Amino acid sequence: MTDIRVLVADDQELVRTGLRTILDAQPGITVVAEAADGGAAVAEARRVRPDVCLVDIRMPVLDGIGVTRALAGPGVDDPIPVVAITTFDLDELVYDALRAGARGFLLKDAGAALLAEAVRAAARGDALIAPNVTVRLLEAFAAPARTAPSPAEPLTERERDVLAAVARGRSNAEIGTELHLSLSTVKTHLASLMSKLGARNRVELVIWAYESGTVGR
């Protein structure tokens, strides 16, 4: 199996070196490029075409939100998965990065296992949000001024149950156990939710859940 190729973008050399060291030590993951600012990150990502970009939120030239929007935002024909990283969990820029198309976010002190899992999740088309900050961040910044679009079709009661579980950071297997559903049924409900809500991934499902009030703020 081919290794997951990763680009690391952070304006601090020490942080980039640390992330590279951690990721290169993980089986099946290889860091193939680095960038010290957002403009270089976009250019390098388009040149190298990594499988995943690990992008710091706060960078010179172009911040992580701009990088995310350029590489994975709405309207990008061939998006590259982006995972946003930040030092501060209560940082509205992280929320905005998710809205711009990021597949998830982590704190820089997340640890090797969670960092590797976030990269693997993004590479397979899934998303991972640091479980210890998911609810706090989205509750803090899913402000009433942000209005969720109406679903294309009404959600069923079971779909709402699945959506609430996703918003709590549950995996497909955990959702199945909690709701007494098979894994294939969970996947069917998730596909239906994404279709009805126009969501591209789990992150957008979580954001819609908070913006719509489906789960409490």
From TrEMBL:
The modification 4-aspartylphosphate is found at residue 56. Residues 148-213 form the HTH luxR-type domain. Gene3D superfamilies: 3.40.50.2300. Residues 5-123 form the Response regulatory domain. GO terms for molecular function: DNA binding. Pfam families: GerE, Response_reg. Keywords: DNA-binding, Phosphoprotein, Transcription, Transcription regulation. CDD domains: LuxR_C_like (cd06170), REC_NarL-like (cd17535). The keyword Transcription applies. GO terms for biological process: phosphorelay signal transduction system; regulation of DNA-templated transcription. It comes from the Bacteria. The keyword ATP-binding does not apply. This is DNA-binding response regulator. It comes from Agromyces rhizosphaerae.
